[in-house]
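Hi team,

Below is the intake form for Transcriptional regulator from Streptomyces lasiicapitis. Please confirm the fields before the structure is written into the shared record.

FORM ID: S-0412
PROTEIN: Transcriptional regulator
ORGANISM: Streptomyces lasiicapitis
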Amino acid sequence: MSFSPSSSAQAARETVAVRLRGLRKEAGLSIVELASRCGWHYSKTSRIENALTGPSTTDIRRWCAAVQAPDQAQGLIVQSLNAESMYREWRHQVRSGLKHLQDGLVQFYRETEWFRVYSSTVVPGLLQTEGYAAAVLTIAARFHDRPRDDIAEAARARMDRSRVVHEPGHRFVFLLEESVLRFQIGDADAMAAQLGHLLTVGALPTVSLGIVPMAARERAQWPEETFHIYDDTLVSVELVSASVNVTQPSEIALYSKTFERLRSMAVYGADARALIVKAIDALH
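The structure came back. Fields below:
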């Protein structure tokens, strides 16, 4: 059964909204009365209670003061901040530049021991060549109407980040849909270099590279959105509008189950290399 990875973020927001609404009702206040005490328009109260607007720290403190429950403020603030951090829009992430976005993940990657990556769209960043990365970043910048003056620098930063694949203390399992090998990103030379790199990195002792064939007769799992599992603590899901960070253990377990189903359908070793070589030949 398919599910939306953004559901955990929205559910977290709604949990905060429900608690705030409950405090208002326990205090015997109407939406208009609470708004008056907080010093804002009643429509803001309605938006917060319906999880359409995330409350700020100040909003929560005013709300709790208005319902005479100041002791509830700190817990709600932490819960609200966690909910908002789960869902971060791409346009906010790239506002500081594409290179800054790449650099921000370096330390996190170094602290992660077990990487599980499934991609149904493009070659994962940790396996990208500089030419392929530049082409991917160009497409992303164009789509989000962002400046492209730091793309070359961002591509190099992505290469620096990818060195973690060669550092001790980490292990990697990459699953790619065969269609990823066929989507030409950049020119033919850049794509050929990228596919050749997959042959090289797939031979590393700490790397397991699986390809899910398009011709698989029976699929135990249909293609899903691209996602990364870091150890057993975080899942990052890539959507068109945002990256979603999933931290709920039950949801992480669901992604792990999905990953294992996809993993069982993939081919490895000589069979995976044959599919990559076939994609290289198709470029010509």
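SUMMARY LINE: Residues 1-6, 98-104 have pLDDT under 50 and may be disordered.

Thanks, M.
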